[in-house]
Q: What sequence folds into this?
């Protein structure tokens, strides 16, 4: 993370590790032809990266750094939002408990299993919350919210 | 906190993810030029202001982003049901029976 506003150091506490994700290419995809794309609130592999279904006709594509725009069926809108988003990973046994400090969703494995993704709020900040493993989450947020979100997570990790 | 069932996500979600968007099922007149000033005023400003069962629009703004409709009791703040935009409204409006569910 080369952003001067954002601390580079991962935050490590008992059972929690918060770190910035490496640079990635991100697209917002809107289409009414969802062939090859995951259903709402699910994620799937897509063009060397992942497609996250945020709405009935809205997907967030996270592709490796330097990736070219993917080929998609006609009738779609593909917008590069790589400049807008930053990502965080929250991992560890208490990762869900930490996110639960600022998020009103039920993050138990029964209702929020690995692979599930949704847009929601953490402490007033709009985030995309993606469970990448039983004890591993990826959070995408807007760049202008990122410093605050990171501070809020770190503070909650101190108190947990 | 209220839990509101989003008909698109098809699961209950926390109230803070939603935005209220006024009364539902108010169709814009096809040809506004044909309306009198009074009729236009009614379309723009006059609302049911129901005491009890109210049909209203909500948006899952911090979620799937979709507008949908809900039937909510304005006295008890109970959501009777939510349904997708474009679906005909269920039952009669303002058929409140006077039962406040113990809440005054």
A:
């Amino acid at each position: 993370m080369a952003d001067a506003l954002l601390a580079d150091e991962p935050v490590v506490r008992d059972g929690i590790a918060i770190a910035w994700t490496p640079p990635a290419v991100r697209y917002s995809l809107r289409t009414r032809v969802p062939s090859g794309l995951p259903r709402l609130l699910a994620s799937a592999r897509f063009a060397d990266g992942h497609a996250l279904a945020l709405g009935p006709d809205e997907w967030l594509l996270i592709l490796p750094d330097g990736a070219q725009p993917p080929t998609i069926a006609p009738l779609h809108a593909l917008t590069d939002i790589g400049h807008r988003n930053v990502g965080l990973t929250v991992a560890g046994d208490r990762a869900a408990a930490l996110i639960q400090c600022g998020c009103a969703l039920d993050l138990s494995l029964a209702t929020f299993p690995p692979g599930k993704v949704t847009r929601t709020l953490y402490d007033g900040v709009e985030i995309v919350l993606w469970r990448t493993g039983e004890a591993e989450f990826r959070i995408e947020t807007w760049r202008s919210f990122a410093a605050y979100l990171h501070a809020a997570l770190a503070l909650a990790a101190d108190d947990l | 906190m209220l839990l509101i069932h989003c008909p698109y996500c098809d699961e209950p979600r926390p109230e803070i993810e939603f935005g209220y968007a006024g009364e539902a099922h108010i169709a814009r007149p096809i040809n506004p030029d044909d309306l009198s000033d009074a009729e236009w005023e009614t379309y723009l400003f006059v609302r049911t202001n129901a005491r009890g069962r109210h049909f209203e629009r909500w948006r899952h703004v911090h979620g799937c982003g979709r507008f949908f409709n809900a039937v909510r009791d304005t006295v008890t703040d109970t959501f009777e049901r939510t349904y997708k935009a474009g679906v005909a409204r269920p039952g009669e409006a303002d058929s409140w029976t006077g039962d406040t569910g113990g809440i005054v």
Notes: The interface with chain B takes residues 40-41, 54-56, 58, 104-105, 111, 118-121, 126 of chain A (CB under 8 Å). Chain A has two helices and eleven strands. The mean pLDDT of chain A is 92.
